[in-house]
Design goal:
The complex is a heterodimer of chains A (about 260) and B (about 350). With about 260 residues, chain A is of the alpha/beta class. Chain A has a domain at about 5-85 and about 160-255: Rossmann fold (3-Layer(aba) Sandwich). Chain A has nine helices and twelve strands. Chain B is an all-alpha fold and about 350 residues long. Classes of the chains: A alpha/beta (about 260), B mainly alpha (about 350). Chains A and B meet through α2, β6 and α3 of A and α9 and α10 of B.
């Protein structure tokens, strides 16, 4: 049974098709990367997977169960999301924010158990930010806050992890670390991750497979070196590129010298 | 153990402390006034063996007044907390948003024309409730139901609502001949001169209903503060939560406004103070706001009754004198923290 399956998913907004007939399967144990230019439909696809958007046609299955038929709570126990926008209006401490990841596992009036606290602490340790635990989230930088939200998603302990440009504000080291965490997550029994990234080289290094979205459809899906050909990347991003074989076998994508200057 | 995480023990200890604060405020309110009453006379009145005059003053004048201040203060403070979480904006307050204005408009309609269409005065709280619901619906209709509402959008909507509601209230009152005397003026400022135990009891019923709606959702409020989408992804039934919470706020604001008029800023001051002291967890913030809001308005009303010898100020004047400058200070700080890193 696949961890996540999109079956001819279409979404339109304002008379414009955002996704048209997407078929995509994420297998257990796999990190799938979602790449494509701005507006290609990557975030919409993730929103359909987390159930905050219902497709106009087609359906989404998480571990074989239709997303549309699961309660919010059941879905949150199966899917954890790191969104693009991580702003918080109140001065929660970082630890409290991470602890919110335990919510789908608590009763309505429930307080967090010592196990929940321990799980949140582990998540902070895994991400490498235990020193931020007591800080107010209002005092954190955008990147720090993003790491806290990654920890929250790990604390949520859901089999499927969705990262929506979760590394956008991070420095190179943290960027690689978060993607490695997604890999570690996916390698556990019955788990998987779907990662949106604009860093093609890093996505190619991390993901088992890449899906390249163009205008709401999947242009190609497969191992990174098969998907990231110069022709396809140019077609998807409108920019001529060189694809170089990296020392560890993963392709490296760089704009070619003749790229038009904007 | 991480400091600052809310545990049942910490919740209970904090609430007991705030309950003691409320009791102290109530005692202060009962002993303060033109005729000197001391604690032994209060005790005598309560157990039924004090002197008749003091017992009369305590039971018929002071306690009903203090009880009304307490339930109105609690209602407004809790409504403030709920609006702030729902709108993801710490500057929201039923008065500033114009919800109180909507409630007042509903109430005055029944006051002015109710008898003509066979509605009793007891319908005023329900009309105020309807006004609060309409104002809330309009507010969310204009600012959008989902997402984070900008401070500018909130304030503009609220200012316009309030100006419109005040004008409509004065107009209706003039039409109905209610404008004679200081009644309408007092209502627009907010006052507690309707201090009867029966009325306080009514507001208490609305308050209890509102709290009963809001308290089970308090943990969900923490998540709603992250925005609809994240709350949803963390397991909250967002639409259902919001509907229940809007019902709760309208119940509390409607009842409070029906009996006291436009008492402003309580819903802003109290939650801010409590967040500074205890952090933003709504499981604590909601019940703590009820207790502290009650204590705050009892003290404000005591000041309003006693600060000028032989005269009584409307309590809304006191809360506005405290809350207005505080609001401007918070707005300035809010601007800095929210827009500093953009």
């Amino acid at each position: 049974m696949s961890a996540l399956e999109f079956q001819s998913v279409s979404v339109a907004a304002g008379g414009r098709a955002i996704l048209s007939g997407i078929d995509l399967v994420v297998e257990p144990g796999e990190v799938m990367g979602l790449v494509g230019r701005n507006g290609a439909g990557k975030t919409t696809l993730l929103r359909a997977a987390s159930g905050v958007l219902s497709p106009d046609s087609g359906r989404v299955l998480v571990a074989g169960e239709p997303v549309a038929e699961l309660s919010r709570r059941d879905l949150a126990q199966r899917v954890a999301v790191v969104p693009q926008d991580t702003s918080v209006p109140f001065a929660f401490r970082a630890f409290e924010l991470v602890l919110m990841g335990r919510s789908p596992h608590l009763g309505t009036l429930g307080f967090e158990s010592p196990e929940d606290l321990a799980r949140a602490q582990d998540a902070l340790d895994d991400v490498g930010i235990p020193h931020l635990a007591e800080r107010s989230v209002l005092s954190l930088s955008g990147g720090e806050r993003q790491l806290v939200v990654v920890a929250r998603a790990l604390a949520q302990d859901s089999p499927l992890l969705l990262l929506d440009e979760a590394t956008a504000f991070l420095d190179l080291q943290h960027r690689a670390h978060v993607l490695d965490l997604a890999r570690l997550h996916a390698r556990q029994e019955g788990r998987a991750a779907l990662v949106v990234s604009h860093d093609l080289t890093l996505a190619a290094r991390t993901c088992d497979r890449l899906a390249l979205l163009v205008d709401g459809g999947v242009l190609a899906c497969g191992p990174p070196r098969d998907v990231l050909t110069p022709e396809r990347v140019e077609q998807a991003f409108g920019l001529p590129v060189h694809v170089i074989d990296g020392p560890d076998g993963a392709p490296i994508v760089v704009p070619s010298a003749s790229a038009p200057q904007v | 153990m991480i400091a600052g995480v809310l545990t049942p023990t910490r919740l209970a200890v904090t609430l007991l402390g705030l309950l003691a604060l409320l009791l102290a405020a109530v005692l202060l309110g009962v002993v303060s006034g033109p005729s000197g009453i001391d604690l032994t006379q209060v005790y005598g009145a309560l157990v039924g063996d004090g002197d008749a005059v003091a017992t009369d003053i305590v039971l018929r004048i002071r306690l009903p007044r203090v009880a009304l201040a307490a339930v109105v203060g609690a209602s407004l403070a809790v409504a403030g907390v709920l609006f702030q979480a729902l709108l993801r904006n710490p500057l929201a307050d039923p008065f500033i948003l114009g919800i109180s204005g909507g409630a007042a408009l509903g109430g005055i309609l029944v006051l002015a024309f109710g008898s003509a269409v066979g509605l009793a005065q007891s319908a005023v709280p329900f009309a105020a409730f309807a006004g609060a619901i309409l104002a809330t619906a309009l507010l969310f209709g204009i600012t959008g139901f989902g997402g984070r509402v900008s401070t500018a959008g909130l304030l503009l909507t609220g200012v316009v609502f309030n100006a419109f509601a005040s004008a409509a209230i004065v107009f209706i009152a003039s039409l109905a001949g209610l404008a004679e005397g200081a009644g309408i003026f007092l209502w627009l400022i907010g006052n507690l001169s309707a201090g009867e135990l029966r009325i306080a009891g009514w507001v208490g019923v609305f308050l209890a209903a509102g709290l009963a709606c809001a308290f089970p959702l308090a943990r969900g409020l923490n998540l709603l503060a992250l925005g609809d989408e994240q709350a949803s992804q963390l397991g909250v039934e967002v639409e259902r939560h919001k509907r229940i919470l809007l019902l709760a706020t309208s119940l509390m604001v409607g009842a409070a406004v029906a009996v006291s008029g436009l008492v402003g800023f309580v819903g802003l001051i109290i939650p801010h103070l409590l967040r500074l002291l205890f952090g933003p967890d709504h499981r604590l913030l909601v019940p703590a706001s009820a207790l502290t809001g009650a204590a705050f308005l009892v003290v404000c009303d005591t000041v309003a009754r006693t600060v000028l010898p032989g005269r009584e100020l409307p309590v809304g004047a006191i809360t506005a004198l405290v809350g207005g400058p505080l609001f401007l200070f918070l707005l300035r700080r809010h601007h800095r923290t929210v827009y500093a890193d953009r």
